Amino acid sequence: MVLDSVDSTNNFAKQLASGGAPEGTAVLARLQTGGRGRLGRSFSSPADMGIYLSVILRPQAKPTELLHLTAAAAEAAAEAIELQTGLETGIKWVNDLTVGGKKLAGILTELSVEPESGQAEYVVVGIGVNCSQRPEDFPPELQSIATSVLAQTGEKPDPNALAAEMIRSVSRLSSTLLTEQAQWMKHYAARCVTVGKQVRVIRPLETREAVALAIDENGALQVEYPDGTRSWVNSGEVSVRGLYGYL
Asked: What is the dihedral of CA 219, 220, 225, 229, to 10 degrees?
């Protein structure tokens, strides 16, 4: 389904999923007026400048079995971009695709749970990719931290071909999410630019400096603090030195 304009492809896909739309239903838009990212952030979605895509999945699993989903979806998107454009991307934990220290794409996964069974009712995987922006096309506040396929390769990607590759990659993810979890997370960890870097762990009540050490089988990030203690970060914000203006 292709829309000229929508507030958010994820919002639209969730409405379809609640109404019984089947696994693999995809929603694309030329423009998002309210594109969203993690932690309630907005995602700049100008007309005909990017891929704004959401896909409905219906995994037969409990939410605790899907903790790696966002990380795996980021890896699926990265693989699709590389196959279609030749552009190799890194992944900033947990869900940003980066090139040259700038954000190229973002992932937003949203889950609905059946109250009686506790099983996942549906998952919506949202993918936003900056495709055709020149540096000056980004809002001033994003020009130093965002990039596009055009800016990195010098060529505008074919949006239809890239969207089709994204859908194929998410379909493969859906069919192997639980059976090939270790493989997905191995590839994710290898692509993750956060590991080995100095980071800032930002939580509601504190911000701490640390070093990122590893990614576990569920996509959690292990960090070590200056006092030598270690912990696993499962949620919240982690800034990475050298990315997005954190120096």
From this structure: -120
The type of residue at 138 is F
Q: Rounded distance, CA 128 to CA 24, Å?
A: 17
Task: Give me the torsion for CA of 199, 202, 205, 209, rounded to 10°.
Answer: 10
pLDDT tens digit sequence for 124-138: 999 999 999 999 999
Return d(Cα 69, Cα 173) in angstroms, integer: 9
pTM as predicted: 0.91
What contacts 4, CB < 8 A, 6 or more positions away? Answer: 29, 30, 31
In whole angstroms, what is the distance from residue 91 CA to residue 106 CA? 9
Separation between Cα atoms, residue 22 and residue 197, nearest integer Å: 41
What residues have CB less than 8 Å from 143, skipping those under 6 apart?
135, 136
Residue pair 126/82 in contact by the 8 Å Cβ criterion: no
Spell out the SS3 assignment of 153-207.
HCCCCCHHHHHHHHHHHHHHHHHHCCCCHHHHHHHHHHHECCCCCEEEEEECCEE
| pLDDT, tens digit (0-9, with 9 covering 90-100), for 158-186 | 999 999 999 999 999 999 999 999 999 99
Number of residues assigned to the chain: 247
Distance (Å, rounded) from C-alpha 222 to C-alpha 181?
18
d(Cα 118, Cα 2) in Å, to the nearest integer? Answer: 32
Looking up tokens 């695709």 gives 97
H or E element that contains 207: strand 206-215
